[in-house]
């Protein structure tokens, strides 16, 4: 850092030395702030900044005028560490895990609240139900797809071995679905020769569709009331449209 350490001087020498330490510390914070201002201002997808270190210097730093206001707004937490070198970085990363988890939960709650606001407003920008969402995805109309992390279903691709008719269904248990097909007749020819020819993870299939049309996908945990509502009330998937 270039900041002088402790000394054994007294009297005028002590005061001069303390002044030198103060000047050096301010210059050091200024250099760090300039680097942060320049680097972080260019990061359009920056979500949060976590500042750490021993002692009160970090609090003084984040409150100082050397940091741009838009950078200060990104500071999500200021944490204590016992070290300042690479061990301090490691310690900060370990302590940040819970903070980052809280940040992600806050983001997820905001996304679900945005969906609910649109749903209540009735402007036609919110959709739910797999069939409706699939239709909107294939039209490239969805801007944001919200998917529950606990959504575990499959897309079954079925073919009639008699007439070749094909159709798809979403199921929770592929083995049970295979057994059920044995007793089902083909909706086209009526023969009992339906076979499950392929299965895909529903979430992966929807994400593949989203990728084709540059639709953003966000996964929502079930740790919040909003996340539980997504999974239970909306069957794990909702979306916001680009246009009504």
CATH class of the largest domain: Alpha Beta
- What is the average of the pLDDT values? 90
**What's the CATH H-level homologous superfamily of the largest domain?**
Ribosomal protein L30/S12
- Taken together, the total number of domains comes to 2
What is the CA-based Rg, rounded?
28 Å
Which residues sit in consecutive blocks of at least 5 with pLDDT less than 50? Answer: none
The string of secondary-structure elements, in order, is HEHHEHEHEEEHEHEHE
- The coarse overall form would be elongated
Q: Can you summarize the main beta sheet?
A: 4 strands, mixed
Structure summary, number of beta strands: 9
* Structural class label: alpha/beta
CATH topology category name of the largest domain? 60s Ribosomal Protein L30, Chain: A
Helical content band = 40-55%
Q: What's the end-to-end separation, in Å?
A: 55 Å
Number of helices: 8
What would you say this structure looks like, in words?
- The protein has 244 residues and is α/β, with parallel strands linked by helices.
- It has 2 domains: 11-105, eRF1 domain 2 (Nucleotidyltransferase, domain 5, 2-Layer Sandwich); 126-241, 60s Ribosomal Protein L30, Chain: A, CATH 3.30.1330.
- It has helices spanning 11-41, 57-63, 69-72, 86-121, 130-138, 174-182, 202-212, 225-233, and strands at 49-53, 75-80, 126-128, 142-148, 154-160, 166-171, 194-201, 216-220, 237-241.
- The radius of gyration is 28 Å and the shape is elongated.
């Amino acid at each position: 850092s270039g900041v002088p350490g402790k000394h054994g001087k007294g009297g005028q020498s002590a005061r001069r030395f303390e002044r030198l330490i103060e000047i050096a510390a301010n210059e050091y914070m200024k250099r760090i702030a300039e680097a942060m201002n320049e680097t972080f201002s260019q990061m359009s997808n920056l979500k949060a900044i976590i500042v750490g270190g021993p002692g009160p210097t970090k609090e003084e730093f984040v409150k100082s005028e050397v940091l741009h206001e838009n950078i200060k707004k990104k500071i999500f937490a200021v944490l204590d560490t016992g070290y300042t070198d690479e061990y301090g970085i490691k310690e900060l990363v370990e302590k940040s895990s819970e903070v980052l988890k809280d940040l992600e939960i806050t983001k997820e709650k905001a996304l679900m609240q945005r969906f609910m606001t649109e749903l209540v407003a009735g402007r036609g920008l919110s959709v739910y139900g797999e069939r409706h969402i699939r239709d909107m995805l294939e039209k490239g109309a969805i801007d944001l797809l919200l998917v529950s992390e606990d959504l575990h279903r499959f897309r079954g691709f079925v073919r009639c071995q008699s007439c070749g008719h094909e159709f798809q269904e979403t199921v929770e248990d592929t083995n049970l679905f295979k057994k059920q097909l044995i007793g089902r007749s083909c909706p086209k020819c009526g023969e009992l020769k339906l076979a499950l020819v392929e299965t895909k993870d529903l979430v992966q299939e929807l994400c593949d569709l989203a990728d084709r049309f540059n639709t953003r996908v966000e996964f929502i945990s079930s740790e919040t009331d909003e996340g539980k509502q997504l999974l239970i009330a909306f069957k794990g998937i909702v979306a916001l449209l680009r246009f009504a």
